[in-house]
Amino acid sequence: MTTVLFWDIDGTLLTTGGAGIFAWKKASQKVIGKKTLPSFQTAGLTDVQIAIKILELNRIKPIFSKVKSLLKHYEDFLPSSLPKKKGGVLKNVKVILDQISKKNDIISVLLTGNTQAGARSKLNYYGLSNYFSSGAFADKFEDRTSIAWRAFNLVRKSTENISLENTFVIGDTPHDIYCGKSIGAKTIAIASGPFSKDQLAEHQPWWVIPELPNPSIFFHKINLPKS
Questions:
Q1: DSSP secondary structure string, 131-143?
Q2: What is d(CA 191, CA 126) in angstroms, rounded to the nearest whole number?
Q3: For 124-134, what is each residue's pLDDT tens digit?
C-alpha cells in the first residue's frame, strides 16, 4: 500500500519571512494604483482569496478579470521579492524529503493555497522543487476542500494501491486540518506557522506537533521504516 503525503508550503515546508508582501504591494500598485495594503490575516488563505480580499478592502468589486490580473502581477513580482526577506526551509524538512525520495512506497504531493507559478517560485528559490513533481494549486476560484479532493483524485489516477487510511495532509493552519478531514485523510498539524500547538489542537488533528520531528519519529508515527 502506497503512503501519500500532501504538503502545504508556507509555514510547513518553508518560510519566506513575509517576502510575498512585496510582490502583493507591487501587484496592487499595477492593478488598483495603491501600493499600501490593508492589514489582514493571510495564513491559511489561498492566493485567490488574498487577491479577492485586497480588492474588497479597497472597495473594488472582485470580478474575475481583476482577480486574475492581480494574481498574474503577483506571480511576476514574486521571484524578485523573495530575496528581500530572510526566509528558509524549516527544520527537518529536507532530511525527511531526502529519505522519502529513496522510498518506493511513499510519495509527496503538494496541496497548497499558492498558485502553481507562485509555488514553483518559492520551491525553486529555496531548493525544494526537485522533491515535488505534482500537486494541486489554487489557480481556480475554489476553497481548500476542492483543492484537496483534486489533489487526491490526481494521485488516485496515477498511483495504484492508495487509500485514505494511508493518506496524510500536513500543514500549519486550521484550514489545512479542515481540508484534510474533509477528504477523510489523517491530518498532521505543525505549529511552525502563526498558530500555536494549543490553537491547532482545538481542531482535533490526527497528530499535532510543535515542529517537524526527526525522520525516525516521523516515519515511526506514520508506520513506515526510516530507511
A1: G-S-EE-S-SS--
A2: 20
A3: 999 999 999 99
pLDDT of residue 225: 61
Matching residue, cell 494574481: 71
Residue with cell 518553508: 14
| Residues composing the chain | 227
List of long-range contacts for 57-65, beta carbons under 8 Å, 24+ apart: 58/28, 58/32, 58/34, 60/32, 64/141
Cβ partners under 8 Å of residue 226, min gap 6: 99, 215, 216, 219, 220
pTM above 0.85, yes or no: yes
What is the DSSP annotation of the chain? Answer: --EEEEE--BTTTEE-TTTHHHHHHHHHHHHHS--PPPP---TT--HHHHHHHHHHHTT----HHHHHHHHHHHHHHHHHHGGGS--EEPTTHHHHHHHHTT-SSEEEEEE-SS-HHHHHHHHHHTT-GGG-S-EE-S-SS--HHHHHHHHHHHHHHH-SS--GGGEEEEESSHHHHHHHHHTT-EEEEETTSSS-HHHHHTT--SEEESS---HHHHHHHTT----
Mean pLDDT in residue range 75-84: 98
Give me the pLDDT at residue 104, please. 87
Any residues with CB less than 8 A from the CB of 42 and at least 6 apart, and which?
Answer: 50
